[in-house]
Amino acid sequence: MFSILRKGTIIETRPLARKLGAFVALSEAELLVLERLHKRRRTFVAGCDLVHQGQADQAAYILLSGWACSYKLLHDGQRQIVDFQIPGDFLGLRSVVLHVSDHSIEPITDIEVTEVHGSDLFEAFTETPRLATAVLWTASRDEAMVVEHLVGIGRRGAAERMAHFLLELGARLSLVGMGDEGGYDCPLTQYLIADAIGLSAVHVNRVLRQLREQGMVTFREGHVTFDNYDRLAEFADFEVSYLDQIGPLLK
Amino acid sequence: MFSILRKGTIIETRPLARKLGAFVALSEAELLVLERLHKRRRTFVAGCDLVHQGQADQAAYILLSGWACSYKLLHDGQRQIVDFQIPGDFLGLRSVVLHVSDHSIEPITDIEVTEVHGSDLFEAFTETPRLATAVLWTASRDEAMVVEHLVGIGRRGAAERMAHFLLELGARLSLVGMGDEGGYDCPLTQYLIADAIGLSAVHVNRVLRQLREQGMVTFREGHVTFDNYDRLAEFADFEVSYLDQIGPLLK
DNA sequence: GTTTGGGACTGATCCACATCAGTCAGCGTC
DNA sequence: GACGCTGACTGATGTGGATCAGTCCCAAAC
Question: Using an 8 Å Cβ cutoff, are B66 and B102 in contact?
């Protein structure tokens, strides 16, 4: 269950613990509390929603494998994808804290999760307040991503937005060892990307072609290849600082 | 310092305590810890930034009076206002948790705040974990607003977006007693609104005229008047549930 | 072995909103 | 009383991206 890393530090192998550990150096006792949260392992199949908009007192989940997305539906049937989730991310944390879900969550691939009940989470905070700080950190990081997303949709053109989107996803995947500056595997369809960055699927296609023809990125057959990472990052005005928190910042 | 409300419940008079109290019923001891956070009272003049994008280890503030906004600048000089803050809101909470500010904060009017140091906040969490839960709740509520904002910019037309924006602001102000279904005072210029909802100032003007001519809202001389609240809410597809958490939900 | 369906991709057309280039009223200032 | 500034407001023109209406390819279904 645990693996020993350098200098005797005990680091839990689960992706969430790894992520939280980047912010607070969690003690063995705290890791045990965290471990106890991983109660029930469940799997969901692609396309079948875990959480529905408006649902009350839903459990949260920690994503172990696969991709998911959180989205909101408008009354006219349009949808806006708020964010994609990759392994190590919380699903529906906000739903638990606010006691009602303001969004839906759909698995994009088949996924594995562990279920976390709200009550267990709040109890864990009482036992180990530093865990609360760590979870607040995750929530803040998620918020920072949503804010960046907002800026993109509000102020960037379609191509810059796409470039930024692909870069951010790459940076997040790199943090969990699922990608690097060369590229990454990506199960998203052009329709999903369209719903995420506020374009039509048709235009997503055109923009992807444009970026490809300019030799910056290629997205083809489920794989993103950075043909010229630096030029792309320059083009997109991409700033990683809000993502790559490295090393425990709170002793 | 404290005021006694019905049934002997002690409710702190400060707006933050009132907001947090809506989520967790805070004990007297917890309120005292919260009170100790209000260390230094400061004032800032309109237009002079409190926090700059990129600044490290900034303090957070709790807004006591006046209006502020948090925004991000793009390299090409455009800006996107992420949110407006009204009394009772945190300023720069995310900056403290993430140890670096990903956005700037500007007072729109002269403002009064109290400064909160990150270390004090984290200490307070250790002393009273329920306070941590409460702060996580505030952060989640802010995130929900940003998400709603994202959906608006991504998927709603200019008029719906404007209508939704004015309604949300109204709902938030109502919660702190600064507005009702009839309207509210609002110190925002059309330029500020434009930067917030991702339009040009010119178009903001046109959309406001349109909404006025349709008898839904009037925004004139620093005052928003809801001429027909229900029709406006219907038009904007406005859903308050993510804002109006009423009564302590966590015992 | 034909059908069905989903995803990538394209050209033509349309329109919502941006941009440009102003006017006008109010207000502080020297 | 002229000057400058800021915010509200407007008409003309331009454009980025949506929408419509398809094609092509491939894999699964029957």
Answer: no
